[in-house]
Write a structure and sequence with these properties.
Layout: H1 4-20, E1 21-23, H2 24-33, H3 36-46, H4 50-62, H5 65-68, H6 72-84, E2 96-103, E3 108-115, H7 117-126, E4 130-139, E5 143-147, E6 152-155, E7 165-174, E8 179-185, H8 186-196, H9 208-211, H10 213-229, H11 234-242, E9 279-281
Parallel strand pairs: 1-9
Antiparallel strand pairs: 2-3, 4-7, 5-6, 7-8
Protein name: Recombinase, phage RecT family protein
Biased composition (Acidic residues): 254-263, 273-282
Pfam family, one: RecT
C-alpha cells in the first residue's frame, strides 16, 4: 500500500516532468538550436562548421517574416537536410532554400527544404563525373535554331533584343565525353510548374517561384536533365529524394541525465538558455509517436531519442 510520502514523491516527480515539457513552438528556434542535443546533431554532420551554419539558419529565420511563423522543428528538420548536403541556406546564394508554407492538413505553417539550381550544379561537380555543367535563361533574339531530335542548338548571345525570357537551356558534359543539351520554352516550364503546383490555385506563384521565377525555372530544367541523362552520385540521389519533400516532425526526448551547458552561438538580445534542457513535445498533441524515419539517410534523421 502506498504511503502518503510515496504519493507525494510521485506527484512531485510528475509535476517536475511536466515543467520540463515545452512545445517546440514556445521554445522557439533559437531555444531549439541552443539545446545540447541539437548542437550535437549538427556537429555530427558538419563538425567545426556547425556553429556557423546554425547561426546562418537563425539569421535566415530572423530576416524572413513568413519563416518566423513556421513550426520551429520543421525549420530544424529542413536545415538538417541542407547540412547533410553541406549546402548554405542563405537565399541570396541560391544553393538551397528553407521556405514556409501553410499545411492545411496540420493547420499550421511548416518549413520545407528546396534545392536551388546552383545546389544541383555544386553536387554534380563534387561527384567528379562532370567536366562542364550549366543552365541559362534565353532572351528574346538569342535563339536562332533548336532541333529537338538531334539536340543541336544555335544561340547568338550577342543578339539579345530585350529582357524578355523566352526559354531556358541546360547543358552538361561528362569526363567520359558524353554530353547533353536541353531547351525548354517558357511555356513548357510554366506548364510543368502548374502541373506540379500543390496550391488550390494551380496558376498561383508561391515561395521561390514568386520571388525568383528564373532560378526555379532553371532548376526545373537542370533537375529534369540530370534525372534523365546525368550520373547521380549518392549525394545527388539524396538531393533528388529530399528536394521539396515534406519533412516529418518528430519528438525530441532526451535522457534525464543530459544537462550539459549549451554554447550559445548568438545571444544578442536573447536570454541565456537554462542549464537543463527541456523535453520538447510534438506540436500536435493528437499525433501519436512513431518510430518511422524520414526518407533521408541516417545522418539526416531527426530522431533525438538517443542517449
Amino acid at each position: 500500500m502506498a504511503t502518503n510520502s510515496g504519493l507525494k514523491n510521485q506527484l512531485a516527480n510528475k509535476q517536475e516532468t511536466a515543467a520540463k515539457q515545452v512545445s517546440a513552438q514556445s521554445l522557439g528556434l533559437k531555444g531549439l538550436l541552443n539545446t545540447p542535443t541539437m548542437q550535437k546533431k549538427f556537429e555530427q554532420v558538419l563538425a567545426k562548421k556547425a556553429p556557423q551554419f546554425m547561426a546562418s539558419v537563425l539569421n535566415l529565420y530572423n530576416g524572413d517574416v513568413g519563416l518566423r511563423e513556421a513550426e520551429p522543428m520543421s525549420i530544424v528538420s529542413s536545415a538538417m537536410v541542407a547540412a547533410s548536403l553541406d549546402l548554405p541556406v542563405d537565399k541570396n546564394l541560391g544553393y538551397a532554400w528553407i521556405v514556409a508554407f501553410y499545411d492545411s492538413k496540420k493547420g499550421y505553417k511548416a518549413a520545407q527544404f528546396q534545392l536551388g539550381y546552383k545546389g544541383y550544379i555544386q553536387l554534380a561537380l563534387r561527384s567528379g563525373q562532370y567536366k562542364a555543367i550549366n543552365v541559362i535563361p534565353v532572351y528574346e533574339g538569342e535563339l536562332l535554331k533548336w532541333n529537338r531530335l538531334t539536340e543541336e542548338i544555335d544561340l547568338d548571345l550577342d543578339a539579345k533584343k530585350s529582357d524578355k525570357v523566352i526559354g531556358y537551356c541546360g547543358y552538361f558534359k561528362l569526363v567520359n565525353g558524353f554530353e547533353k543539351t536541353v531547351y525548354w520554352t517558357r511555356d513548357e516550364v510554366e506548364a510543368h510548374r502548374i502541373k506540379h503546383n500543390k496550391a488550390k490555385d494551380k496558376k498561383s506563384l508561391n515561395n521561390v517561384w514568386r520571388s525568383d521565377y528564373d532560378a526555379m525555372a532553371m532548376k526545373t530544367v537542370l533537375r529534369n536533365m540530370l534525372g534523365k541523362w546525368g550520373i547521380l552520385s549518392i549525394d545527388m540521389q539524396k538531393a533528388f529524394t529530399e528536394d521539396e519533400q515534406e519533412r516529418e516532425l518528430k519528438d525530441i526526448t532526451d535522457e534525464a541525465n543530459e544537462y550539459e551547458e549549451p554554447i550559445p552561438f548568438d545571444s544578442q538580445g536573447q536570454d541565456e538558455p537554462a542549464n537543463e534542457e527541456p523535453e520538447i513535445i510534438d506540436p500536435d498533441p493528437k499525433k501519436k509517436k512513431t518510430n518511422k524515419k524520414m526518407s533521408a539517410q541516417e545522418s539526416m534523421d531527426i530522431d533525438f531519442e538517443d542517449a
